[in-house]
């Protein structure tokens, strides 16, 4: 029920507008259905995806929001030939460079639909949408639209799109290799606070603008051979419609390129990043808009109905907010590969540590968020070192330690941390004289290690 945070209907009841992106064009072709009866067929199903850092997940619901099926493709174990760890590559030569192969996401979709087609009649699915890790960017090579729009249903996606990318490895949200470009972009727009007020965030290494500027500066031949730049969310939507899906306004706010108040690309931010960038990005679209009909490839190969609609994908954090139907004053905590804290507001206040996005199901409100990079992968690292890679042993260690952990406090940064901005390192302290009544008389002492239960 989105009614509490959306003033109008999410989907029009009688007219549907579909935006189909044309390559190297800044406009969309809008196809409008005539008014008529669009009641859903009996036994209609709805398919939702989540393309995260480590896996692709799918959930199928019926019209009563009952879960009919779930499926899961884990990148490391189900697609081991890509040799990722936690779904990513860490560059041993370039400090902070962390990427993922976009072809892995393509093959994950192949595998996912093969599995689902053996369990369900995919012809009953009337609409598809999804969420994806934020900030990752995909670079389509010149001529890729032609490949994408003419896929052969007898051949797997992964075998047709191998040469579609001008950059074979996509920078993702964990990357921290663009500090130099962040400084240049902030200087060009008048400072960090000015960029935050304009785009919702100061320049962050993982954001698309500094990543694009880095490519333009260091790999100009790649930049000029790029026809379209997609986010991971619009990339997955593009596969499904057989054309370039728009970047949605909410995920687009996580790029340092969009004017968050106007929900349009900012000319100032574009000019501070790279030339001719707007035509490579295409148009923005509302997060609840229709991207297009499913591509003939999927109708022929997996027997989807040709009229199945693909709704705009968006970022995982904004979609979490939408699913929780938060109200003003609510805060949500998400513990994932990254940990986030977020809420909603009508008037976001400038704060360099925070991020601001338009709410995906509201044309006026904003989402405010704090992000901590060292989430589940760091917790798993502690589990692997101290609990024999077992969550059961991990839980037993937890039960062995009293509240406040006898004053033992640790900060664990397996990756360069976002908030606060700190380098890799583990920091352990013992707080002597710590009680539940306060900090008076506490004496801090740094130590090299804890016993396993205390570390957990």
UniProtKB/TrEMBL annotation:
Keywords of the record, alphabetical order, are: ATP-binding, Carbohydrate metabolism, Kinase, Nucleotide-binding, Transferase, Xylose metabolism
Q: Which residues form the Carbohydrate kinase FGGY N-terminal domain?
A: 169-321
Protein's UniProt keywords contain Heme: no
Judging by the UniProt lineage, the source's domain of life is: Eukaryota
One Gene Ontology term of the biological-process aspect is: xylulose metabolic process
Q: Which reaction does it catalyse?
A: D-xylulose + ATP = D-xylulose 5-phosphate + ADP + H(+)
What Enzyme Commission number(s) does the record list for this chain? 2.7.1.17
**GO CC term, one of those recorded:** cytosol
**Has keyword Thylakoid?**
no
Gene3D superfamilies membership: 3.30.420.40
Question: Care to name a GO molecular-function term for this sequence?
Answer: ATP binding
Q: What InterPro entries does its record include?
A: ATPase_NBD, D-XK_euk, FGGY_N
What the record says about family reads: Belongs to the FGGY kinase family.
Q: What does this protein do?
A: Mediates 1-deoxy-D-xylulose (DX) phosphorylation in the cytoplasm prior to the translocation of 1-deoxy-D-xylulose 5-phosphate into plastids. Can also phosphorylate D-xylulose (Xyl). Uses preferentially ATP as cosubstrate.
Protein name according to UniProt: Xylulose kinase
Q: Species lineage, top-down?
A: Eukaryota, Viridiplantae, Streptophyta, Embryophyta, Tracheophyta
């Amino acid at each position: 029920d989105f009614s509490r945070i959306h003033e109008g209907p999410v989907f029009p009841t009688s007219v549907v507008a579909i935006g189909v992106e044309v390559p190297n064009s800044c406009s969309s072709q809008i196809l409008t259905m005539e008014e008529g009866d669009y009641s859903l067929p009996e036994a209609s199903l709805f398919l939702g995806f989540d393309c995260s850092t480590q896996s692709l997940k799918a959930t199928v619901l019926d019209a009563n929001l009952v879960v009919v099926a779930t499926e899961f493709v884990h990148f490391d174990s189900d697609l081991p030939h890509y040799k990722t760890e936690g779904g990513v590559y860490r560059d041993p030569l370039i400090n902070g460079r962390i990427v993922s192969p976009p072809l892995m996401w393509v093959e994950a979709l192949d595998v996912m639909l093969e599995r689902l087609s053996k369990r369900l009649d995919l012809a009953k699915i009337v609409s598809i949408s999804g969420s994806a890790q934020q900030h990752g960017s995909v670079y389509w090579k010149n001529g890729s639209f032609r490949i994408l729009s003419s896929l052969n249903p007898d051949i797997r996606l992964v075998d047709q799109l191998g040469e579609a990318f001008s950059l074979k490895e996509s920078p993702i949200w964990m990357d921290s290799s663009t500090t130099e470009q962040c400084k240049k972009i902030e200087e060009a727009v008048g400072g960090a606070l000015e960029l935050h007020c304009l785009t919702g965030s100061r320049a962050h290494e993982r954001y698309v603008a500094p990543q694009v500027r880095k490519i333009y500066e260091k790999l100009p031949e790649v930049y000029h051979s790029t026809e379209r730049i997609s986010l991971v969310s619009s990339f997955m939507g593009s596969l499904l419609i057989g054309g370039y899906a728009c970047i949605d306004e909410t995920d687009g706010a996580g790029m340092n390129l969009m004017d968050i108040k106007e929900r349009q690309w900012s000319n100032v931010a574009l000019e501070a990043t790279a030339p001719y960038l707007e035509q490579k990005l295409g148009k923005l679209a509302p997060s609840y808009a229709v991207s297009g009909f499913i591509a003939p490839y999927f109708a022929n190969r997996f027997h989807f109905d040709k009229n199945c609609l693909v709704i705009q994908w968006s970022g995982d954090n904004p979609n979490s907010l939408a699913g929780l139907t938060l109200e003003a004053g609510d805060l949500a905590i998400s513990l994932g590969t990254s940990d986030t804290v977020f809420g909603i507001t009508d008037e976001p206040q400038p704060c360099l540590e925070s991020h601001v996005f338009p709410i995906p199901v509201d044309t006026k409100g904003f989402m405010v968020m704090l992000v901590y990079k060292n989430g589940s992968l760091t917790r798993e690292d502690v589990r692997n070192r101290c609990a024999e890679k077992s969550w059961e042993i991990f839980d037993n260690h937890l039960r062995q330690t009293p509240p406040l952990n006898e004053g033992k406090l640790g900060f664990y940064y397996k990756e360069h941390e976002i908030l606060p901005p700190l380098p890799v390192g583990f920091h352990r302290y013992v707080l002597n004289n710590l009680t539940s009544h306060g900090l008076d008389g506490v004496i801090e002492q740094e130590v090299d290690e804890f016993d396993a239960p205390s570390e957990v």
